[in-house]
Amino acid sequence: VRLTESGGGLVQAGESLRLSCTPSPETPNTFTILTMAWFRQAPGREREFVAAISRSDGLTTIYADSVKGRFTISRDKVKKVMHLQMENLRLEDTAVYYCNAQKYGSPQTMQTTPGDLWGRGTQVTVSS
Fold it and tell me: What angle do CA 82, 85, 90 make, to 5 degrees?
């Protein structure tokens, strides 16, 4: 399964962006069984967890404290795409954002143990 991110860019602090992640499916059912997440890595820093969403209907979502209340992770099972809506962006949100996925799994586990599927990343830059 290949993961493709899109939607990154340059914005000013306080503005919004929406990232998307589209898996290239192995089977028609692939998207349904993927638990999916976003991680990010800023220059000189460790990669960190941002948000995760459960497979199938995406009823369970988990967020890092640093983005809670500003970011929303969601999935569209018809279009087979996962989104990260980012509001009120801050300078410290600047990073490369990576889509991550695991067949089955759980959002809780992915907080500390990323899945084995990664996208190439999309740059998000927030300026003052």
Answer: 140
State the pLDDT confidence band at 117, using cuts at 50, 70 and 90.
Answer: very high
The residue count of the chain comes to 128
d(CA 14, CA 116): 33
pLDDT digits (tens, 9 = 90+) for 90-100: 999 999 999 99
Q: What percent of the chain has pLDDT over 70?
A: 100
Four-residue CA torsion sign, 103, 123, 74, 66: positive
Closest CA to 56 of 30, 38, 37: 30
Q: How do 34-41 and 48-53 pair as beta strands?
A: antiparallel
Q: What is the mean pLDDT of residues 45-72?
A: 96
